[in-house]
Design goal:
The complex is a heterodimer of chains A (about 260) and B (about 260).
Chain A: H1 2-18, H2 24-49, H3 54-64, H4 67-83, H5 87-92, H6 97-126, H7 136-160, H8 167-181, H9 193-200, H10 205-215, H11 224-255
Helix pairs in contact in A: 1-6, 2-3, 2-6, 3-6, 3-10, 4-6, 4-7, 4-8, 6-7, 7-10, 7-11, 10-11
Chain B: H1 2-19, H2 22-45, H3 52-82, H4 85-90, H5 95-109, H6 111-125, H7 134-158, H8 165-179, H9 194-198, H10 201-214, H11 219-250
Classes of the chains: A mainly alpha (about 260), B mainly alpha (about 260).
Chain lengths: ~260, ~260
């Protein structure tokens, strides 16, 4: 019961306390305004460059913008404990680390799905993107898997932030590299082999592939392979994130370096 | 002489600060290379390989705009967080002469972006760096930097009373890339977008740099760039005087 409380109430409080962009004055321009213009920019660049259609860019960027909350937000959910000076107090409690860790992920998954959905709806309203109504449930499932995977990646960066000096540099870099490596704007087949290989082990790449398939009318069975790959990458990130979190906790206690910034 | 010394000191100090900032390195060096690469791959895939120098210049300008936007919008916020905005305002030097060299330095730092995208295009994609009018190119680049620095001054002066200037900066990056035609020609956008672009220095700056690099007459665009810069300077000075007075009256300078 205590763990459930830490998971739900603790997760909600951590979201409100640690997510720098929770105020509507920041949330709306940063998480809704900026990403929409990202979709428009790349869709128009696609039109000018003369390859792929609007749907390719709307789905690619619409799914990837979940990283605004999933990567930046999840990084803040862990790393900000250190920056705000609350990490020692948190780790002095006997709270279940697993419940504490998992509770922080859920708000960002919900948030990421909202941001991506907003982007896809605006893409449908403003650009040449009109998925069939029957594809929406499958698209929602793909989004859930992809956003969860991306959030796990954000938590991994956040865990590194328990030790690294400037983890927000890493989360910024990760966001922009996703645009290049994850098939968001360029199909992996058009990238050099080594870049495609890196993209295939990153979160979001397979999710975007599955989302494009579903939006084009394929069934869930047809996109099972990329969807499972996305799920696997997300699970690997989650395990690595939790493992690093526990390792850095133990190591920081031993070296008395919890508050070092 | 004292004004020149103040301006030079402010410019050097800001440049040194930027050189040590991971975020600024990301914005002015790494991010433009990523965007240039995306544009190169998209243009290659779409059989527009003749436009790679066009893309390199555009991505460089995108980087200069990002650097100007985030650092100029962020300058006041950063000074607030560090607690020295109030001492700076209270000091005998006019605050405009403190802010102006900082925004000019931020735009100058953005030159790394253009240098990086051109070098990256040459090294990784084999783009020939032959400019149609090299001397005019050497004039167009500093004129663009100056004008964007003055645009940064205008933006920063508008952000004095706005607590969430950084969030607004986050939203203004892509729209300005779009409406100024740095990568996507304005002819592809709806007609009502074009007049917005005409008011923004990057529109004329990218045109001046492209015309001098790819061929054309860059002088009208250089003139427009510098003319707009003068307007930004005048408006920024008026806004700054007005908003600083309001902030003093309301005691909201720190906004924390």
């Amino acid at each position: 019961m205590t763990s459930l409380r830490i998971f739900t109430i603790g997760g909600a409080i951590a979201y409100r306390a640690l997510f720098n962009w929770v105020s509507p004055w920041i949330y709306i321009p940063t998480l809704l305004g900026g990403p929409i213009f990202q979709i428009l920019f790349f869709s128009y660049l696609g039109r000018y460059s003369g390859f792929e259609d609007d749907a390719f860019f709307v789905v690619g960027n619409g799914v990837q913008i979940c990283a605004m909350t999933s990567v930046y937000g999840a990084t803040m959910a862990i790393a900000n404990e250190r920056w705000f000076g609350t990490l020692s107090a948190l780790l002095a409690t006997p709270a279940s680390r697993f419940a504490l860790f998992l509770g922080r992920a859920v708000p960002f998954i919900v948030n990421g799905i909202f941001v991506s959905t907003f982007g896809l709806v605006l893409g449908w309203a403003l650009l040449d993107f009109s998925p069939a109504l029957s594809s929406l449930p499958a698209l929602a499932l793909v989004l859930l898997v992809t956003v969860s995977s991306c959030t796990a990646f954000g938590l991994l960066l956040g865990s590194i932030g328990l030790r690294a000096r400037d983890v927000f540099f890493a989360s910024n870099l990760a966001y922009f590299l996703m645009l290049l490596f994850c098939g968001v704007n360029i199909p992996l087949s058009d990238l050099p082999g080594w870049m495609g290989a890196i993209g295939r082990v990153l979160p979001v790449t397979h999710g975007i592939e599955a989302a494009r398939g579903v939006a084009a009318g394929e069934g869930l069975g047809d996109v099972a392979t990329p969807l499972l790959a996305e799920l696997g990458i997300g699970a690997a990130c989650a395990v690595a994130a939790y493992g690093l979190f526990r390792f850095f906790e133990a190591d920081s206690r031993r070296r008395a370096s919890l508050e070092t910034v | 002489m004292r004004i020149l010394r103040l301006m030079l000191t402010g410019w050097v100090f800001t440049m040194k600060t930027n050189l040590r900032s991971g975020f600024m390195i990301l914005t002015a060096v790494i991010q433009p290379v990523i965007f240039a690469s995306i544009a190169f791959f998209m243009f290659q895939a779409g059989q527009r390989s003749g436009t790679l120098l066009y893309a390199a210049i555009g991505a460089g300008l995108m980087g200069i705009w990002s650097t100007t936007l985030f650092s100029s919008g962020g300058s006041l916020q950063w000074w607030r967080w560090q607690g020295f905005l109030e001492p700076l305002v209270a000091s005998p030097a006019p605050f405009a002469l403190v802010l102006l060299p900082a925004t000019l330095a931020n735009a100058t730092y953005g030159m790394y972006a253009l240098g990086m995208t051109l070098a990256w295009g040459k090294l990784a994609f084999g783009i020939p760096l032959t400019f149609a009018h090299p001397w005019l190119f050497a004039v167009a680049v500093p004129a663009t930097i100056l004008s964007l620095g003055l645009l940064g001054f205008f933006l920063a002066s508008s952000f004095v009373l706005y607590r969430h200037a950084n969030a607004l900066s986050n939203m203004l990056e892509y729209p300005v890339w779009l409406v100024t035609g740095v990568l996507v020609p304005l002819s592809l956008l709806p007609g009502w977008v074009r007049p917005i672009g005409w008011l923004l220095a990057p529109t004329w700056g990218v045109r001046a740099i492209r015309d001098s690099a790819l061929g054309g007459d860059p002088l009208p665009a250089i003139g427009m760039t510098l003319g707009l810069g003068a307007v930004y300077l005048a408006l920024g000075a008026i806004f700054l005087t007005y908003f600083m007075r309001l902030a003093r009256e309301r005691a909201t300078l720190s906004l924390t």
